[in-house]
């Protein structure tokens, strides 16, 4: 069993190194051989079990349109084999997404994620995010005329 303090510290380092810095190789230290995305509506990997290379590909693909993305952890709670964070996210839309060419605009969203831990590694997550808000920001970027 992971202690509350250990789980919180593990999550802070994981978010900073893998998701914020884009150090995909660091996932080896944090992600279990099988990682289950239990609930993440709108995410192409929703309900899938990824091996470590699949998880790394998910990070690469997710970061590509927003290479400067940053998660700011608002709250973090831990209990037994779970660590929960609420967060704000921001990134500059520098790469194309299906139906949304790069705009150079700053995109923001918020959400909450429950991470599951076993043996000191993350085995999956359950997440809710404001994907509708992201979609609205992307659409707005399409309608703005260039300066």
Short synopsis of the structure:
With 147 residues, this protein is of the alpha+beta class. Helix content is 31%, strand content 37%.
Terminal-residue CA separation: 55 Å
Tally of extended strands?
A: 6
* Overall pLDDT: 95
Strand order of the biggest β-sheet: 2-1-6-5-4-3
Work out the strand percent.
35-45%
Report the C-alpha radius of gyration, rounded: 16 Å
Explain the overall architecture.
- With about 150 residues, this protein is an alpha+beta fold.
- The chain has a single domain, classed as Nuclear Transport Factor 2, Chain: A (Roll), CATH 3.10.450.
- It is about 30% helix and about 35% strand.
- The chain has four helices and six strands; from the N terminus they run ααββαββββα.
- The relative contact order is 0.18.
- The model has no long low-confidence stretch (mean pLDDT about 95).
Characteristics of this structure?
147 residues; alpha+beta; Nuclear Transport Factor 2, Chain: A; 6-stranded mixed beta sheet
Task: Produce the secondary structure layout.
Elements lengths: L3 H17 L6 H4 E9 L9 E3 H12 L6 E10 L2 E11 L13 E13 L2 E9 L1 H13 L4
Parallel strand pairs: 1-6
Antiparallel strand pairs: 1-2, 3-4, 4-5, 5-6
């Amino acid at each position: 069993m992971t202690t509350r303090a250990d789980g919180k510290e593990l999550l802070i380092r994981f978010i900073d190194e893998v998701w914020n810095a884009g150090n995909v190789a660091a996932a080896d230290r944090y992600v279990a051989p099988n990682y289950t995305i239990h609930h993440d509506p709108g995410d192409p990997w929703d309900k899938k079990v990824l091996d470590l290379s699949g998880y790394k590909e998910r990070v690469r693909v997710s970061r590509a349109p927003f290479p400067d993305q940053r998660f700011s952890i608002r709250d973090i709670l831990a209990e037994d084999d779970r660590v929960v964070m609420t967060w704000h996210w921001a990134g500059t839309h520098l790469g194309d997404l299906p139906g949304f060419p790069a705009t150079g605009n700053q995109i923001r969203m918020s959400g909450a994620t429950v991470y599951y831990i076993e043996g000191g590694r993350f085995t999956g997550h359950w997440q809710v995010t404001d994907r509708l808000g992201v979609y609205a920001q992307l659409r707005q970027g399409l309608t703005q005329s260039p300066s």
